[in-house]
Amino acid sequence: MKFKVQRENLLKPLQLVSGVVERRQTLPVLSNLLLSAEADKISLTGTDLEVELVAELKTSVDEAGEITIPARKLLDICRTLPEGAQLEIVVTGDKAQLKSGRSRFSLSTLPASEFPSVDEIHGMRQFEIGQGELRRLIERTHFCMAQQDVRYYLNGLMFEIEGQSLRSVATDGHRLAMSDLVTSADVGENQQVIVPRKGIQELARLLVDDDERVQIHLGNNHIRLQLPGLRFTSKLIDGRFPDYQRVLPKGGNKLLTAECAQLKQALIRTSILSNEKYRGVRLQLDNGRLRILAHNPEQEEAEEELEVEYQGDELEIGFNVTYLLDAINAIVGDKVTISLSDANSSCLIQEPAEGSSKYVVMPMRL
Amino acid sequence: MTATSEILPWHRQHWQRSIERLRAGRLPHALLVTGPVGIGKSVLADQLARAVLCRAPLDDGRACGQCQACSLYQAGSHPDAMWVGPEDGSKVLKVEQIRAVSSRMSTTSQLGGHRVAVLIPAERMNAAAANGLLKTLEEPGADILLLLVSAQPGLLPATVRSRCQRMALTVPSADEAEAWLRQRSPQADVGLLLALADGAPLAAAALEGSAGLEWRRTVVEDWLSLLDGDAEPAAIAQRWHGQDLAATLGWLMRLLVDLIRLKCAGQPPRLANPDQREHLQRQAGRVHLAELYGHLQRLQEAVRLTRTQVSAQAILEQVLIPWRLGASGR
Amino acid sequence: MIIHVDMDAFYASVEERDRPELVGRAVVVGGSADGRGVVAAANYAARTFGIHSAMPAAQAYRLCPQAVFLPPRIKYYADVSRKIRHIFERYTPLVEPLSLDEAFMDARASERLFGSSESIARQIKNDILTELGLVASVGVAPNKFLAKLASDFDKPNGFVVIHEQDIQPFLDPLPVQRLWGVGRVGARVFDELGIHTVGQLRQRSKNWLCGRFGKFGEHLWQLAHGRDERTVVPDRQAKSISHETTFEHDIDDVNVLKSNLLTMTEQVAYRLRQAQLRARTVSLKLRYADFHTLTRAHTLEQPTHATDALWATANRLLDQRLLPLSAPVRLVGVGVSALESTQTNQTDLFAQARDIRRQDVDRLSDDISARFGRGALRRGRTLKP
Q1: B108, B114, B115: which to substitute to probe chain A, counting the most A Cβ within 10 Å?
Q2: Domain C11-70, CATH 3.40.1170.60 — does that match?
């Protein structure tokens, strides 16, 4: 294998692909990148056995071939080469020679056959949506994903296809987020897939906020996205997502509407004196008025009062302030509506005009 | 590329049955592979794991050793296979390791086939780890194979055992074992090796020419001279100190059991130390059976103490001194 | 200085207090005269007949047929215990209960307010007697280990203070079995080694003791020198809560073990609820007659302070991980750790109704005992193992 490439052309894809490679990997081949060269392009593949990233770039290839080389070292070398440098990579025997100007490096390699890349995915269906649209679906819900929960199906983000709508849902058992997107194309048969946490985090990093279309491939075992110059593949969680419709509160007869910014600031200030670990705050609702109270084990106390739109019986209810803030932060628009029923039931947080996202938060017993 | 090893002759029945079930799509999701040490439990687990993952298995069900799955497995980088044992000098399988298994088993297969995890030795899972595995055992996805390999399945929580199907491997017949070992090591004293390994062929093969065999010789000689009154317990304990205590106690146990056999049966057909028959016979004539049972009890206690903080020296002295007393009391 | 308060024959004394007709008679709490169950407590009159706790009731009956056998009323004793606790808390917030009838206190920070630790200890003893009609033995010493020895030294109705300069003269003549964790049977091991007193033990080097007894040897060495670094930790700040019992005689009857474990589990659960905590991990400790000690732990998916759930776990640990017993047992203990506050209790979207019901049963029974003091709610095993 032999090819030449501009440092600037290689660096960005190399950084992206190396990003998924686990640093504490004990098996050498998994801390390597798969490097393949053919005709007029090279590709770089990195994996952590859950998420795979393949970057492709055009360059002049003298001799085709496939090999794996240490990701971290290749990246460090490229990063520290001077700007505008040109690299030549030649693989002979079990060594990869890197030349650039007067620098010479000889890196150890492992055969490509030891590298677990995902070539084809089975049971595929495809559709297209805007990159920005997908990014928003993730941004508005991902913070509710569970982390290392024994209910393993919660450790990811669920995408649900229903007719023309694509929905994302995440829950850690204490709260839930869902967001809807109506696509222009009929994506067909109903389907649910759960993408593991790591894959979602990687996607959030890769997707940019623009209208460019992105191809989504859904297989039995994988989700694959084709982005410009980059292919993302993630395994799926093999399990059933809980029936989230069942836990969406329906009987919320107490409606509170507040200015997003005002409510957020009040919550942030109160949270300073809430229990650092449990983050509990108490909401007291009365006609047109909301009081937020918090205290901590040192017996310090905070109290905020703000004017809100509220009609209904008096109500006192406790919440984890972080959960409330996460949801309010994800709300688009100036106002937020919270519907409640009693101190033991969940609340529903959304935009006043029933926007595309909904948040459910379970209370705390205080 | 290394070809897959032959199925060990005494595993063939289990092998064939497993392959039939695999082909019929009826392989259980969790197999508890049990049997004495040294009969090839891990060999069979490895062969099964490979077979399940292989894209083009041979006619007898073994992995081809050539396909992508096989070459990834051999490189240790098969994305759907895990081999989990105690790490970093730890004696136990930790909950983090089991979590990694559960997590891998909860996501879909990368290559589209089975997902396989081998846990060995499974009984080393600590409580939290065993607990963590339960969820995966209870709600396994499709095409999962968990191979729990254990010589002491009794140490596994019942909740884990009851959720696995047992594959109980046994020691082969003497003829089968000898034939296999002779073919492998034509020069060796096959009978002795097998006797010392309790008939376990792989353990016998590992003994051949090993330091363990050399060490046994020392233990036997020291012990005999202790019984003859030619050596002091403290000196022997001193010399044995620093050696593998469990192995040493194991050799002593075998010698003691032989003495009891000789005492009870006179001419027992089988001894655990067939090469020492004459010496043992001589010693057996000089001790009372009740004394031997006393030694047995102390030795069993000593084995238990190896799992505590008590020093090796103290344990050895506790075992050896009564032999000396017995000798002087005669 | 650390204060240790130990109620004298607590359960039996509470019964005597409430039923004056019992005064002067041998009173045995736990088990029935028909021989079922084990003795939970015996008053001093009963002890003169050789009756002691953890003894099978049948044996106690043989020793003293005229004794009064009463079923234990744990919830009620817990209620009395709470009143005693309130007395402690008048003087210091640093109260660490060991069981319903025993607690450590660190009152050093309150000395300006109430006088020396010694005088605080006297006030506490006096308050308990005048307000609750119960007698306590009190020890005051530089650390927990010595304070406990001190309270035990002149029991019943004792009051013993050990000052820094008195430590060695106090310890040396004591029989080794008074060292925590040795017990009566362990003393035999030391007898064979020619060690009868703490002073003789103190002559031995740390290395010698460690070689002989492992970690326990180190512990013995510290104790023989009167050292103990443990601080008084109130439950609310505790990282773990545990109860253990060193038997006067080694136990090989599993039912006796279980009976003791259940009682201790109830006390642990009660303390959790009082401290508004839930525990995620339950652990069990067994020490055999030869000091070989085993601990086994299980971590639950959901934290709990429900007696039922804790007992189910402890019982399962015993059945599956520790039985059959390989030797007679010197000590059993049950503990909980990975504690979480219940004050801030996040509810779950997909929670199971079962857990909530279970908690309600315990809350109810605690309430009943708090309000009426006569909770007839008892679990099966404390009565008939």
Answers
A1: B108
A2: yes
